[in-house]
Amino acid sequence: MSLRLAVKFARRELRGGLRGFRLFLACLALGVAAIAAVGSVRSGIEAGLAREGAALLGGDAELDLTYRFASAEERAWMEDQATAVSEIAEFRSMAATDQDRALTQVKAVDAAYPLMGNVQLEPDIALSEALKAQDGIPGAAMERALIDRLGLSLGDGFTLGTQRFILNAMITREPDSAAAGFALGPRTLVTLDSLGASGLLSPGTLFNSKYRMLLPENAAINAVETEAKDLFTDSGLRWRDARNGAPGVSRFVERLSAFLILVGLSGLAVGGVGVSAAVRSYLARKTEVIATLRALGADRATIFKTYFIQIGILSLLGVAIGVTLGALVPVLLAPVLEARLPIPSAFGVFPAPLIEAALYGLLTAFIFTLWPLARTDRVRAATLFRDAWDGASRLPAWPFLFATASATALLVALAGWFNGSWWLTFSTLGGIAGALALLAFAAFLIRICARALSHRLRGYPRWRWAMAAIGGTGEGASAVVLSLGLGLSVLASVGQIDGNLRQAIAGNLPAIAPSYFFVDIQKDQMAGYTERLENDPAVRRIDSAPMLRGVVTQINGRPAKDVAGDHWVVSGDRGVTYAAQPDADTIITEGAWWDADYTGPPLISFAAEEAAEIGLSLGDTVTLNVLGRDITGTISSFQEVDFSTAGIGFILTMNPSALQGAPHTFISTVYAEPEAEAAILRDLATAYPNITAIRVKDAIDRVAAVLTSLAAATSYGAAATLVTGFLVLIGAAAAGADARTYEAAMLKTLGASRRMIAASFILRAALLGLAAGTVALLAGVLGGWAVSTFVMETEYSIIWHSALLIIFGGIAATVLAGLGFARRALQARPARVLRARE
Question: Where are the transmembrane segments (predicted)?
């Protein structure tokens, strides 16, 4: 019976329209829409990657080899499996003119490239035409950034190594560029045949060869992959296929969207504060209705169900609005998004992210509305008639507490399940919960302190009125501090993390990093190379080491991935070196180095930190595939390897007799005065055209650009949280409008001027904004410190300009929200207000 009556009462209550619930709907809809939009964009990108997987990869499948070309056996197998095969070599080199030189990522292709898609050039000519030789000089195409950097025009000449090329076209689009991953320099396209006399692809030089294949329509791609791995994995061959043509992009999009959705949950939490405030305010206005129902015999369950059903229906409406917006916005903005994204996308309506957002919205609404709704169960009719909510217990009964805790645990579990990273989920949501707890405690302290100060400021009426209002029994102070504070906390954390990353990249590294990395130095060039640098007084230090690349294939006779999982050391090829004795800076943490003249079975000195992560011990064996040959060594020591200095660092060092017979080159780092860098580069590039120079500052700038984009994306998510917080501020200001009108009428009656009352209102808002901003800054600093220290592993310092902006932003937001509703209170006539109150 109580449920039927509750439904009937709820239906009648809903006839009154949405008055009082606009804030409720706006907060819920905005939070859900932000999460749904991020999820929809992610799904659109994933759909585009899946649809264009073969085009992104440049074929149905790709076999990747490190620093060697395919053997006759491997090439014969590819020809047998595929209807077409394209061979590509990729490496870094220096493009040089008579006046300048710059780092470039070279892609040397054969006549079959591209197997899928088209390279778009300017002028609009075929790739074969652009790369064709003229008067014995091969052609080339470059990206605009490199053309501008070298000051070239079409028809001008440049060199790669010792080979002269003619620039015939500018690259405007590469069909397989997304699959190439991060590059340190702009692209140059040439033919494989043209590099024969360049000296850039000699044995031991650093390059990757890739073989794209078009498979027959009826080919079973799983079977082809299994056969390739069975035949060639031990030779260092890596497989990719069109099912995931750009795995790096896919992983990046997945991880970034997971983080942004968690940031969106902070927006929902802010919205939850507004939802709770709206429900509390609505029920306070329904005191007489509730009291009448209780007096007529309605039990507690019926009243609770009445308003639970009503709020539930409105929650469904708010979630539906948010889901609709989150689905439509990416579709409507698809032309803009597709034009800005460097990867294919297929935007549409995807059910999965919308369902995820809807579940988050419903659970958030349940968590934040159950508490105020539960208070109706603890209030007697007589108390309601006497003094509204003053007699109600603030703490609901234990079943409601249990339901709230269960719903919160379910929301956390869903977040972890959907984004696939429990660590990220617990850390992010734990930070949000911690910030909310800190803000709630701060709001409590602020009210107590304001109440105490109001009695001590008798000679300062404006301040006393402001303090009395903050310390009053209303919910305004709590709503302002919680809603604005959480939004500002997220923004403050992002600002601190971004600022410290920029500081680490632009400030700390150049002070300790080398000027240049030089790679592909041949053995017979080391003497002349070293002599040039050692005789330069501007050069402070030179570090050189032999350089090979190897793939860790086995650990203790088992497949490496079975032992180390997805650890980065076993994911792809890694730098390997050899040394007879450790240098002066090497710190051995465990075990012992081999003798200088040791010629026995291969021994390994492994990076200590990475070894601990993988679970390696002294005496374990590691099998490396170097240039198609397996070398198994025993770990004899662990050493500290510091990659943060941007100097030379190897995960794995072996004794010389294990590796020095393999073709290889040397790498070197040069620490020099800035004014000498140009001369060093010019002299070495002229004497040794095959050597590639990587200017460390340029590499750092490219990394900084990527990190800036990440920070910008996260800032957009934080901004959505802040907008929700501002909506809650407006709602709190609107809810307190009647109280401020009555307060202004009383003060006018007692002789206060409008200016004094307005100053009191501004002081009240500014103090609450200052409190919210200060607490948010504390939460943001703690969050930034945690991420910088434990995730980024960088030094941390407070970015004060960002911190001060957060505080000023909090003050400005509360003042603007408060002033919007203060005008009516200041203009109201006291007599009319006081008569209406009676």
Answer: 259-283, 304-337, 357-374, 395-418, 424-446, 467-492, 716-737, 758-786, 798-822
In b/e form, how buried is each residue of 274-302, taking b as 16+ CB within 10 angstroms?
Answer: bbbbbbbbbbeebbebbbebbeeebeeeb
The verdict on 415 and 427 lying in the same domain is no
- 203 within 8 A of 69, measured Cβ to Cβ: no
Could you identify the residue written with the tokens 């374990």?
620
586: helix, coil or strand? coil
Contact 67, 547 (CB under 8 A): no
**DSSP bridge partners of 171:** 121, 143
- HEC sequence for 422-438: HHHHHHHHHHHHHHHHH
Query: The domain containing residue 660 runs over which residues?
Result: 539-672
Q: Tell me the pLDDT tens digit for each residue of 749-778.
A: 777 777 887 788 888 878 888 888 888 888
Provide the pLDDT confidence category of residue 381 given band limits of 50, 70 and 90. low
Q: For the purposes of burial, counting CB atoms within 10 Å of the CB of 532, is it exposed (0-12), middle (13-18) or buried (19 or more)?
A: middle
pLDDT digits (tens, 9 = 90+) for 506-534: 554 445 567 788 888 888 889 899 888 88
Alpha-carbon Rg for the chain, nearest whole angstrom, is: 34
Q: What is the DSSP letter of 134?
A: B
Out of 193, 218, 243, a domain closes at: 218
Given a cut of 70, is residue 254 above it in pLDDT? no
Say what the pTM is: 0.66
Helix (H) or strand (E) holding 449: helix 422-454
Which residues does 635 contact at the CB level (< 8 Å), separation at least 6? 591, 603, 604, 605, 606, 611, 616, 617, 618, 619, 620, 621, 622
| Dist. CA 41–CA 253, nearest whole Å | 10
What are the Cα distances from residue 706, in Å, to 130, 360, 490, 595, 702? 31, 30, 21, 44, 7
User: Does any domain span residue 383?
Assistant: yes
Helix (H) and strand (E) counts for the chain? 28, 21
Count of domains forming the chain: 4
Largest interatomic CA distance in the chain:
104
Q: What is the pLDDT of residue 246?
A: 53
Domain-ending residue, one of 420, 439, 466: 420
The set of residues, in sequence order, having a beta carbon less than 8 Å from that of 158 and lying 6+ positions away, is: 95, 96, 97, 140, 150, 152, 164, 165, 167
Domain identity same for 414 and 432: no
Q: How many CB atoms lie within 10 A of CB 801?
A: 8
Q: How many Cβ atoms sit within 10 Å of the Cβ of residue 682?
A: 13
Same domain, yes or no: 392 and 256: yes
Same domain membership, residue 117 and residue 262: no
